[in-house]
Each structure stands twice: as C-alpha cells, then as structure tokens.
Amino acid sequence: MNKKQGLYLSAVAIAVSIALPAMAEDQAVRLNASEIIGSKQKALQLPGSGTVLTQSDLDEFRHTDINRILAEVPGVYVRSEEGYGLRPNIGIRGTPTERSQRITLMEDGILVAPAPYSAPAAYYFPTAGRLAGIEVLKGPAAIANGPYTIAGAINMLSTPIPVKPFGGRIVQELGEDSSFRTHAHVGGSSTHFGWLVEGHKQATDGFNDIDNASDQTGFDKEDVLVKLRLNSDPTTDVYHQFDLKLQHASEDSDQTYVGLTDRDFKADSNRRYGLTREDNMDNEMESFTLGYLLDTGSFSLLTQGYYQDYKRNWYKVDKIAGTGASNAFDCANSGANCSGTLVNQSNAQAILNGNAAAAVNVKANNRLYKSKGLQTRFNTDLAWGSVQHGVEIGARYHEDEEVRDQFVDSYQQGADGSFTFTGMRTPEAKRSKTAKAYSLYLTDEIGLDRLTLTPGVRLEDYRIGDNPDEREVMFGLGAHYQLDANWALLAGVHEGFTPTSTAGTDAEEALNFEAGFRYLDDRLYAEVIGFYSDYDNLIGTCTASTGANCTVGDQFNGGEVEVRGLESRVEYQLVQTAAYSLPVSLSYTWTDSEFKTAFNNSFFGTVEQGDEVPSIPEHQATATVGYRGAQGFAADLRGNWVDGTCTMATCGQFEQVDSYYTVDLSTRYAFNEQTEVYANVINLTDETDDIIARQPYGARGQAPRTALVGVSHSF
Q1: Which of 80, 161, 385, 549 could pair with 194 as two cysteines, CB 3.0-4.6 Å apart?
Q2: Alpha carbons 616 and 601: distance in angstroms, whole number
Q3: What residues does each domain of the chain span?
Q4: Does domain 432-714 have CATH number 3.30.450.20?
Q5: How much is the mean pLDDT over the chain?
C-alpha cells in the first residue's frame, strides 16, 4: 500500500468511526450541489435542450464506455478510438470531437479536464463505470457553464451519499479477455453527518494481438473516492452544509495510436504491429473539493474550492525509419511520402510487419497538469407582481498549468521482428504553459404564465501563457412556452466562445440558434429541435492524436463556418400491461456543416469553400427495444448507426472513415429489490470490418463481440 492509498483509507476509517454511533432516521439533504439540471422533469422545462441520464438509465446496460452511453443522446457525436472509451472524442452540435476539448466537461459541477484553459484535451476522463448520472446541456441552457459555450456542457455525477443510516451497493462483473470489474460503495447519513466510501477497479487483457510478442493490450484502472458531509439540522430555517470530496484514480493501459494499413486491416482488424509493443499509458489523478452551502429558504449560496493534480506518461511510437509515423503509413498505403530510410511502399509495409530492420523512436509524452479554483453560485426566487423570477449569479476564479518534460528512446527493430533498446535517450526541453481566468454569469428565469424566458450573460476574462489578457462577453436568451398539458415549444439564441492560446489565432466565436417542440403524455415522449451555428472563425487545436503536421498545442484559424442540423428523440410504451411492457426509443441527429472560405494551413490542410468540417457525421441514429416483465426479467436490444466521415476536408482515399453500426444486448433478472444478475453482449453481430478511426497513424476498428456476466447487490 502506498502513502496516497493509506491517506484515503485513513479518511475512511475516521468517517466510519464517527458516523456509525450517530446513525438516525433517513434525512434528505436540501440541495444536491453536484447537479445542474437536477432531474428528467426539470429537463423538460428547460428553455433550451438538455438530457438527464439517471442511475436507472445507466443500469440498463451497465456500460463502462462513455461513447456507448452518450450514443443515445441526440446532438452528441462520439468517435471511438481504442474500443474501451478510455480517452473519448466527444463533440456537440457540430463542434470538432478531437479529445473532447470543445465542450465544457464537469464532474459534480466542477471543471474536470486536466487544464481546461491552457491544455483542454481531456486525456483524463472520469471512469464511466462508477458514475451515478449524466447531464448534457445544449443551447442557451449551457451559457452558465463555461468556458466552452458554443456547443454545450456535460456534467457527470458521482455516487451520492446515501440518505439512509447505512447502505451501499456492490457490483461484480466478469467477461471475455480476462476482464473483470468490481464497483462497491458504502455510506450513510445521520442528522448532522454523512459519509461515503467508493472503490472501482476494472481490468482486461485486451482484444488485440501484437505481432512477434506476447504482450497484452488491455488496461488496469482504479478509482477510490471518499465523501464527507457535515450539516446543521435539516429542519432549521437557516441551513449550513460542508462537503469534502477526495479522489484518487490511476490507469495503466497498453494502448497505442498506431493502427493498421488498409490492406492489413481488411485481413485482420484485431492485429497490432510488433513495433508498438512498448506503447503504454500510465497516469494518475488526485482531486480535492471542499464546499459550503448556505440555504435560508429564500436564497441559497454554494461556494466550492477545488484542486486537481494529474500526471501522465504516454510512451508511444513517434518515428519509424527516421520519419514521422504518419509518413510511414502514407508510404505503406499508397507509396506517398516515402522518406528517410523508407525506400518504397513494399519496404514500408515490411517494416510495419516486422520483416525488415528499421530504427524506431518511442517518445515519452510525459506531462503534469494542475488545476485549481474557487467558484460560487447564488440562487433566489423573487416575485414582482405577477411575474416570477428565478435568479442565479455565479462567479469563478480558475488557474491551470501544463508542464511537459518529455524524452525520446531509440529502439532497433530487427528483420526477425525483434525489438531492442539501443541505450540512447534524448531529452527534450522542458516546457510549461499556465492560464488564469475569471468568469461571471447571470441568468434570470422569468415566469409569465405559460411562457418562461431565461436571459443570460456571461463574462470570461482570461490569460493563457504569454498572450495578453482577453475578455469575452456573451449574451443568450431562451424561451419555453407550454401550449397545454402535453405540448411545449422552445427557442433560443446565444453567443458562444472558445478560449484561444496561440498568438495570431483569432478568437473562436459563433452565434447559435435553436427551435423545436416537446410532447409528453402517459405513453409517449417526443422532442425535435433544429439548431444552427454561424462561426466567425473556427479554430483547430493540434494534438498528438490528430496526426497533423503541427506542433502539439498550437491553434489554427479555420475561417467562417456554418453548422445546421436537426436532433430528435422519441420514447414510447409500445405495450403496457400488468404482466409486461415493451418500451421503445429512437434518437436521430442530422448535421450539415461547411467552410465558407478557402484556405490552407498545416492543421486543416487544403480547404475549399463548401467542404465539410472533418469528423462530423451527417447522419447518426440509435434505436432501443426493451422488455420489462413483472416477474423480474428485463432485456434491452440497442442498435447504433453512424454515417461515414472524413478526417480531413480534402477527404482523400486514406482520409475516409466508414459508416458503421453496432448492436448491444442487455439481459437481467432481479430476484428482489436488492439483488440482480445480468448477462450482456457488446457488439452482438461482431461487426469489426469497418474503419471507424484513422488518426493519427492507420486504420482502427471496433472491439469484437464481447460477453460479460455480473451481479449487483444493494443493501
């Protein structure tokens, strides 16, 4: 046991020793500070679009891949990379998906990206298997949750402290490829105290086979979380609550950016080249959040301080035969960009296959991130005559930092596929980037009989690196009109903004519109929303995963862009009897995007007017058919289809990503309210022939059909 784990276990012991003697009757906490929307019912009343996934929703499939979880949310795009969702690529309403860096990511209302201003690429992402809920906000509803306000925000909810004196749950899961998952939490509440201890461990050997090596390709992830709450009597007029959240997470995964040439992918999509055998991601995260809530009944004030320390080293192939790995794949695929010691196309393919000798550089992408801040939120309800107001004022001071301390190791691949470290290590210059930001926002939910108007304004004042201070002010207005008990109309307009960190790159700004309707009765829910974004300037941010010919972290102008689309969701109880029910649902998103100007740079490449924004599918849909039996058996069959895209605007032969689909099956049986067993199959039809990702080096596909079984017991 290391010191850090000992610290958390000590906190656990203290919590238990204090809480157990004081257990009393169930007490409800006045305000769950981690939530932004709050419930499915409140999502229906938003003057903008929003989705809430509850614990019950997540338990239907018990997915640990965030890509699969978010696939049913309309207007959200995900691009799988390694088959497990370890480092997701998420976009909303036409924003680029690369490393989820164009949306505001939060856990329990706190910014969760390692350095959301100075280096927003989310190489850390909360473990999906331990989440208790997810909130997705789009349109004017997202203006209060910056800094990324063009598309929207995702707020992930951790397990709450139980309201009863003592309770918890344990989930044990086993699956193919020697995979297993254990998720357990225990806690309780008394009149003045609450506590929670949670652990989540997940591991697998992986589904890829490495040439000429017995190395595994899976991962091992661990999370430990402790929550403590101290509060005054919930029945008092003036309520005080202190919350402490401690978390430690780690990952050791044998993952790589290197895929396969198209020829090799078609032969065996689960193969991996031997020169990637040393590739490994090793990361560790620690976070601390302290909150204070004051609630008088007439107003509430929530103040939170947070600190996050994240370090990672992605040790992975950088150069092959004296040239960039992307050139090696260009040479092997088409005979283009053969340089260095790559003689020709057949020679490049032989090197990748391990049948020809070559020098291989493996870079340690060793980085440290720190993020800290203080934020406060004030809420009050006012009545001026017959007009009701729900006022919310928020402020945040934030600092973050990225430090790069990287080095390159030299290896020699032999013609027999051997792989030997040559003893040469080349350090790179240590670099760092810092950011400071002040944020303010004000929203007012104005109730006018059936009409609700929500104007809002947000200010972002920030400085990144050596760049001068920047200030952006954004306005928004959302409207919700309840036609009758079933029908509601919504519309909104808001200004959006993305912070920029590279000198000479214009700010990313867009004017965004949405309009649609909702319908709800006892058996049917339907929502259809059209959206439109008019970008003054789209920016592109270079990351290692883009594979572009650019320096990681640099940003580039993409000029004027228009994005328009339609998102819809329908949920219907096809059959509803005392013996069983058949719920069905369908989500569909259509998106059309185009560059309005022609240009050329090292990130976007050559762009012609009318070209589509890369990696945004025109069509995507998810359909689910379920069965709920009165005797405890339930099942769900879900299919997801995503249209083909291009990784670059030029959309050349080796820049195209296939359309693909996947089908997942979930079956479960509840013995009682406490105990349930389940058996699920991921990718039921074993679709692995489609290329679903290309960048940065080669083609990659879906994880193959995988079966798993598990048991869940609550107490």
Answers
A1: 161
A2: 20
A3: 432-714
A4: no
A5: 91
